[in-house]
Write a structure and sequence with these properties.
4 strands, 7 helices, alpha+beta, elongated, four-stranded antiparallel beta sheet
Length: 191
């Protein structure tokens, strides 16, 4: 059974953890607001998403938005400008709420009634590793049928759980060399 990499990049290999690449892809599929929170348009779009209904406001509070309703109203009317810390809090709360809201729908699309989704594993970059130390790691594809735990961990923003699910459950289906795909350049899938 493959072990986890203890000193990744020691010989010059480049890449990121597979679960991080998968989480980025899930974020892309979630369809976050494109305008940055630092622009007025981006800030107002996030405020609208988090405050349009009482239920949305409750979710925002639960996700960590601690600003008062009066302050939120002043921001939306342009009478006050949020600090960098407040903008970061607003963006973090928006991402948490958006992830929770789209998780169920995204899970249905990824599982596709048991048929699953084809995932592409783009291997790590070994161009800076000297030739005798390079590993033969090729491009692989895998049909993942069980996304429940991965999407649940992604929606909760639990990196440890995402790492565990990705390495122990999803990549384990690649066969005996699945440890070589702990780090990758990219993970590709659509839903």
């Amino acid at each position: 059974m493959p072990q986890r990499n203890l000193e990744f990049g020691k010989f010059g290999a480049q890449g990121l953890k597979g679960y991080e690449a998968a989480a980025r892809r899930l974020d892309t599929l979630a369809g976050f607001i494109a305008s940055p929170v630092t622009t007025r348009r981006g800030m107002l779009a996030r405020l609208n998403y988090l405050t349009r209904t009482p239920h949305a406001r409750a979710q925002a509070r639960e996700a960590g938005l601690t600003v008062t309703d009066r302050t939120l109203r002043r921001w939306s009317e342009g009478k006050a400008t949020p600090s960098r810390k407040s903008l970061a809090q607003l963006d973090a709360a928006y991402r948490r709420v958006r992830r929770r809201n789209v998780a169920r729908h995204l899970l249905q699309r990824l599982n596709r009634q048991g048929r699953g989704t084809r995932v592409e594993f783009h291997p790590l970059n070994q161009s800076q590793v000297t030739r005798p130390l390079q590993r033969d790691v090729s491009f692989r594809t895998l049909n993942v049928r069980r996304w429940d735990r991965m999407v649940e961990a992604w929606a909760a923003d639990d990196e440890e759980a995402m790492d565990s699910v990705w390495f122990d459950d999803i990549t384990a289906d690649l066969g005996s060399e699945y440890g070589a795909y702990e780090y990758v350049m990219n993970i590709g899938f659509a839903a």
